[in-house]
Amino acid sequence: MAKRKSDSGGSTDPVDSSARTIDTSGPFAIETIDLVKEYWDREASFLRKTKKRVVDQVNIQIRQGEIYGFLGKNGAGKTTTIKMILGLTFPTSGSIRIFGHSGDDPATRSIIGFAPEKPSFYPHLRAAELMSYAGELMGLSRSVIRERTSRLLALVGLPDEANTMVMNFSKGMQQRLGVAQSLIGDPRLIIFDEPATGLDPFGRKFVKDLILHLKSEGKTVFFSSHQLLDVQEVCDRVGIIHRGKMICQDTVDKVLAGESSLEEKFVSMIQGLGVNEGMFDPKKVGE
What we know:
Blueprint: E1 2-5, E2 11-15, E3 28-40, E4 51-63, E5 67-71, H1 78-86, E6 93-98, E7 101-102, E8 112-115, H2 127-137, H3 142-155, H4 171-182, E9 189-193, H5 201-216, E10 220-224, H6 228-234, E11 237-242, E12 245-251, H7 252-256, H8 262-271
Parallel strand pairs: 5-10, 5-11, 8-9, 9-10
Antiparallel strand pairs: 1-2, 3-4, 3-6, 6-7, 11-12
């Protein structure tokens, strides 16, 4: 039994997260308020240590039942923000609300499913054993675990792999298993970090179809991605983070503002901030 922190930083009464039911009737599945994360700058000298701000006053509002795409260049602060929302790292300042409840509340963990960009599994366990392990950690009964394992492996396209060791899975199969494992607790909120990275066109289509299916079940999906065409096709709203700051948050149509390509719009927005590193410059060819 863990103690839940109050918004003022103190402790309140103990909370049994396995026995408590979270009220999810609020308007936002996720709300971050002036979220800040700072790290000690490793490149600074030992005698002159400085802090580097990687997430800077980030305010995100994700409505219940929507698909929200979180965009940004590598190193923009996407994964750090996701880790704070999940409670895997703590914000330097600011606050997080999950369905209106403090992000410090352990009970909120039971309604969140998460699939990382690179899932890590015990290689000698079978797919069904990994699903069972995740289900047991969430306090599910064996009968529920068996039913959900069968259904979820079929959902992600692995219906015949329950008894296959993970060491024999391809990268794409492991990503699908990671998605299935994230859904074992029947979460209300699903968070994916770069779910389509390294996937072929069939794998990317699977991810898009799955996200749309989850929305049809009334779930909220929040995911980061560099596949902007996919984001444009499935998302209701997007947020763009750059160098730790949110520079845009709106519906896809309003972000496009009449343009046809989210990718072109994203690039033009970043370039409009005076950022051109990583861009192709034909003038430099042959130099």
